Amino acid sequence: KYLSTSQGNFETSWAKIHNLLELQHTDIKASFEKSLTVVQHQFKPAKFKHIRGFISIIALNITLSELKRAISIGVDRSACGCVICQTHGLPCAHEITEYKRECHPIPLERIDLHWKKLNLVAVTQKQKVKLSFQPEFELILDILKKLKEIANPGCTFLLDPEVKTRTRGRPSIKVDTSTHRDPSAFEISLSGQESCSLNVKSNSVTTTKSKAEVKRRGRPKTKVNNSTPVKSITFIDEFPVGLQSYIHHIKDVVADGNCGFRAIADLIGLGEDGWVQVRKDLLNELYSHLDDYGKLYGPERVNELIHILSYYENWPASSDRWMTMPDMGHLIASCYNVVLFHLSSVQCLTFLPLRSEPVHILSRRNIALGYVFGNHFVEV
């Protein structure tokens, strides 16, 4: 189309492609200039006064669409879904409602840097900050020296033993000719530990006997909770480094084997407990277009998907009932007419509806699903 002919050499094709790129370059610069200077009528209200002229018109249109959604959604986060916030770095409907209630315009700081760059100037790398680890290094060396002293009994922290002097009677003038040496401080300390361990051992025997007597008497047992607090799990490290700065919110769901369906149910507005309905919807999508999915996956895989989705019990699902990707992605996108982003450290995929016509970017609905630790789904 752009070369106007299938014949020609590299030189003529290069010239046409170069002219095409220059034209696109000019169009991009014109759109940037329009975003900086032109104020459209729908962006004149005070809500946009901090962002108009500072961000792209496309971002303004998306924000305007969320402003219209805010009228019906209000501050309900679950109804909002926060999809635009997570995928585009722009304020979503419930956030805009909060700004309106506080009579504050939409702040420029809430807009992602991607929409603020309205020029083609190359981004210069930030100056590297030199950090010094010398104080920490010296502290570690000091700790190692002290540990070495503790491990080696011949070090200088041992002191000479104190000799108990007699305070009563006449001092003896007899010379001590004994060949038995005085114990060192280390031996004194060691003998104290041995006596202490003997006391503990005797106490342990006594305690064991008393416990046996209590058991014979039929005293009720007392349960002791030895569980240790579980450290909070960080999901952000499970995603590619290049995407981590764009991920602003991660929501965990119950890990009962239905986590993938729970996350989808919450993302489309059914709530996490709507996972059974999601399974039924996806199964209906599969049965309704069985021939199409048979060509896409093959009959054997289709039967496996039917087995995975046919589970509605209220107890944890076994691994053969878990959501699997990427084949479930096409079912979800086509069933709910959404754009599904699947993010993980292994692969990042985008699923589009297989049958519906393309919709305008302002009406498009995007949801994101994260796969972490090789066995769990979360909302992103």
Automatic annotation (TrEMBL):
GO molecular function: cysteine-type deubiquitinase activity
CDD domains according to UniProt: OTU (cd22744)
Positions of the OTU domain: 248-380
Gene3D superfamilies, per the entry: 3.90.70.80
Entries under InterPro entries matching the protein: OTU_dom
Name of the protein in question: OTU domain-containing protein
